[in-house]
From TrEMBL:
This is Tat pathway signal protein. Transmembrane segments: none annotated. It comes from the Bacteria. Keywords: Signal. Belongs to the UPF0065 (bug) family. InterPro entries: BUG (IPR005064), Bug_dom1 (IPR042100). The keyword Signal applies. Pfam families: TctC. Residues 1-23 form the signal peptide. It comes from Paracraurococcus ruber. CDD domains: PBP2_Bug_TTT.
């Protein structure tokens, strides 16, 4: 009569030990880090030094796999459906929370939901800049806004796709300022930046990482930022909020996620690995050289950040409405 409860208790007690053994052995093979955009954008710029640091730490390959499409929806959904064994990760951007809300605007079933991901670690959270070519006639934000109002629909800007991480901040600005700009979507931040540099478009909302080399070379200039305060090193660049656009606040962040069903011991192994990589001087130097300030958070700190930013982005998408 008493054997069944005893056996059940022994079985239950064994579960955590199996999980711990799993985590201790992790990783036993390659861990794929998916970036849902082409090379050259913010997710890619952050993923590559982080993956290199994890390879040194784990002594296992950590290939970065670019899976672009539908402003990040394709790659994000692939990781949401991946086996929750810790061997498939996503270096997600702020658009991760936006895409499902945008699908609902159009009455579509989202390809994934945010709760299908387990947040592991945030690496960067930078305000976007309003970047224009050095050859552009505008030296200030005010000149850009005035010209845009004089010539509705004639100033083109590029983005990483509808509702992507580079489209939403520009849509925030156009909505708040009553502008009519010509939106030219691409499959990712890299192609969007190439369009700016080649003169196909005249404006781009970009995180600091991808445009820093071009700022240094003098190929582009920045007119404003979407931050709540001016950015160290860019003290002369005004924020849109201080110019009267209270709702224009946007951060292009990059963080590591696993599929939601990943067991807790594996999530903890992943978190410990990410924390160690964030302390790696080579990773820190690589991020800094690319213009990204390390803003590492994990655990409750990352969860709280994600909740706050998601609420702001969902409200922004609802204000922007349908974009065909």
């Amino acid at each position: 009569m008493h054997r069944r409860p005893v056996l059940a208790a022994l079985a239950a007690a064994a579960l955590p030990r199996r999980g711990i053994a799993q985590a201790t052995d992790f990783p036993s093979r390659a861990v794929t880090m998916v970036v849902a955009f082409p090379p050259g954008g913010q997710g890619d710029v952050v993923a590559r030094p982080v993956a290199a640091g994890l390879e040194r730490l784990w002594r296992q390959p950590v290939p970065v796999v670019n899976r672009p499409g539908a402003a990040g929806e394709v790659g994000n959904a692939a990781v949401a459906r991946a086996a929750p064994d810790g061997h498939t990760l996503l270096m997600g951007l702020s658009s991760l929370a936006v895409i499902p809300e945008a699908a609902r605007l159009f009455g579509r079933q989202p390809a994934y939901e945010l709760d299908q991901f387990a947040p592991i670690a945030l690496f960067t959270a930078d305000p976007t800049f309003l970047a224009v070519p050095a050859s552009a006639p505008w030296q200030t934000l005010e000149e850009f806004l005035a010209d845009a109002k004089r010539r509705p629909g004639q100033i083109a800007y590029s983005s990483s796709g509808n509702y992507g991480a580079l489209h939403v901040p520009m849509a925030m600005l156009t909505t708040a300022a009553g502008l009519d700009l010509l939106h030219v979507p691409f499959q990712g931040g890299g192609p969007a930046l190439t369009a700016l540099l080649s003169g196909q478009v005249m404006a781009l909302a970009s995180g600091p990482g991808p445009i820093t080399p071009h700022l240094r070379s003098g190929a582009v200039r920045v007119l404003a930022s979407w931050g709540a305060r001016r950015i160290p090193g860019f003290e002369s660049v005004p924020t849109l909020q201080e110019r009267g656009f209270a709702t224009a606040e946007y951060y292009i962040w990059a963080g590591a996620f696993a599929p939601a069903g990943t067991p807790a011991p594996l999530r903890e192994s992943l978190r410990q690995g990410m924390a160690a990589v964030a302390r790696d001087p080579d990773v820190q130097r690589a991020l800094a050289a690319a213009g990204n300030g390390l803003d590492y958070r994990d655990g409750e700190a990352f969860d709280a950040f994600l909740r706050t930013d998601t609420a702001r982005l969902v409200q922004a998408v609802q204000r922007i409405g349908k974009v065909e």
